[in-house]
């Protein structure tokens, strides 16, 4: 899921936000282990920790999901060993059973880099611009914001950056893949390479001390403050060498190297068409709205909601986030079947992104559309009952 964190590179123009990564891995049976006395966070040497252990009155389980992803998406790496967690914080997040293991302090007690300052500056500037919305309202500006919300949020972030590029849940003709990815660039959440890398790391290390944004380090850290420590992902996960499939394509390298120019160009176009109200609503209100919807998938969907599947992490199905985020709120379903283009697995689970994928499939534009089979769902259901 992604949301604004861009890691340092040689490029001058893409040094801003990048949001939230993953590849389908076959599931092996859950192995129940006895926790080690005195160990604040048991880890699986070959998999990731089941953070049921972080929820009150829950047994510790560890699920081995260490099957390596396809080589074209993840290149070999030697990650730095994770830093042990500090003593457990022990505070429960409001209205949730999730316990904060350690409170991550981002704003104080560390040196801010120029990239940190730039990222925070963009987030603050867009929020301040939003405050002017009541004074610069007109119907045309409002509908510009709605249109861009759909174009950048639905087509750009949820369909392109997340389900198509991060998870390869379906294939598109290159011209359409690049068009949708360009819509995602205009969300001002970072270039596709950095966004996808961060999201894939999130799934690889979900809700462990190496996860780029987990509520085990505090709700607001998982929601947005992780964005302001731009070196954190490299320190936790290593260099972004899990996106070889995108880095070998000239289009994505070009977007990475010229990232900031594209939203600036959009802002200039909006100003030329509709003046300052189009800037306020098209580049202020719309961007902030899509920011927080994306961030809620990282925070709220790991804190509030229900778990239909035992995925070995804190992911939840959250209906109100699903409504706002075009189906992304069915997050536990997504973590259970990371490869699936469909997140709303039940007929009543509204998933606008899936409906668009189905339309593209009917038109012959989306191919190799992946969804979990009944056998796969039954197999996971059997695991959940053991």
Task: Describe the protein's architecture and organization.
The chain is mainly alpha-helical and 386 residues long. It has one domain (30-385). Helix content is 43%, strand content 3%. The protein has helices at 114-130, 139-166, 174-185, 192-204, 219-223, 232-237, 244-247, 250-257, 261-274, 276-298, 319-324, 331-336, 352-362, 374-385, and strands at residues 30-31, 48-49, 62-63, 91-92, 99-100. A 3-stranded antiparallel beta sheet has the order 1-3-2, with no helix packed on it. A hairpin with a 6-residue loop joins strand 4 (91-92) and strand 5. Helix 1 packs across helix 10, helix 2 crosses helix 3 and helix 2 packs parallel to helix 10. The longest helix is centred in the middle third of the chain and has 28 residues, at 139-166. The radius of gyration is 20 Å and the shape is globular.
């Amino acid at each position: 899921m992604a949301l604004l964190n861009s890691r340092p590179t040689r490029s001058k123009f893409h040094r801003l936000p990048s949001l939230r990564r993953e590849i389908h891995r076959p599931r092996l049976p859950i192995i129940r282990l006895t926790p080690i006395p005195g160990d604040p966070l048991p880890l699986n040497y070959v998999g990731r920790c089941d953070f049921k252990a972080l929820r009150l009155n829950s047994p510790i389980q560890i699920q081995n999901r260490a099957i390596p992803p396809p080589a074209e998406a993840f290149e070999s790496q030697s990650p730095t060993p994770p830093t042990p967690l500090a003593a457990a914080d022990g505070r429960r997040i409001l209205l949730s059973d999730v316990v904060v293991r350690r409170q991550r302090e981002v704003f104080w007690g560390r040196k801010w880099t120029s990239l940190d300052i730039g990222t925070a500056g963009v987030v603050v500037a867009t929020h301040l611009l939003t405050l002017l919305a009541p004074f610069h309202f007109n119907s045309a500006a409002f509908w510009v914001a709605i249109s861009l919300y759909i174009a950048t949020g639905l087509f750009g972030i949820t369909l392109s950056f997340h389900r198509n590029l991060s998870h390869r849940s379906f294939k598109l003709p290159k011209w359409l893949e690049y068009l949708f990815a360009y819509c995602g660039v205009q969300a001002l959440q970072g270039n596709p390479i950095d966004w996808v890398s961060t999201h894939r790391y999130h799934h690889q290390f979900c809700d462990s001390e190496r996860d780029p944004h987990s509520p085990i380090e505090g709700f607001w850290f998982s929601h947005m403050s992780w964005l302001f420590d731009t070196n954190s992902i490299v320190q936790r996960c290593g260099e972004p060498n899990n996106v070889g499939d995108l880095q070998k394509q000239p289009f994505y390298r070009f977007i990475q190297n010229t990232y900031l120019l594209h939203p600036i160009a959009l802002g200039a176009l909006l100003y030329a068409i509709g003046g300052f109200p189009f800037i306020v609503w098209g580049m202020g209100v719309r961007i902030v709205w899509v920011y927080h919807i994306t961030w809620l998938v990282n925070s709220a969907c790991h804190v509030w909601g229900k778990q239909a599947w035992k995925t070995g992490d804190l992911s939840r199905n959250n209906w109100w986030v699903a409504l706002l985020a075009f189906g992304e709120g069915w997050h536990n379903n997504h973590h259970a079947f990371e490869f699936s283009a469909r997140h709303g697995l039940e007929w009543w689970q509204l998933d606008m992104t899936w409906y668009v994928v189905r339309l593209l499939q009917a038109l012959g534009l989306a191919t190799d559309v992946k969804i979990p089979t009944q056998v796969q769902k039954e197999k996971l259901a059997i695991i959940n009952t053991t």
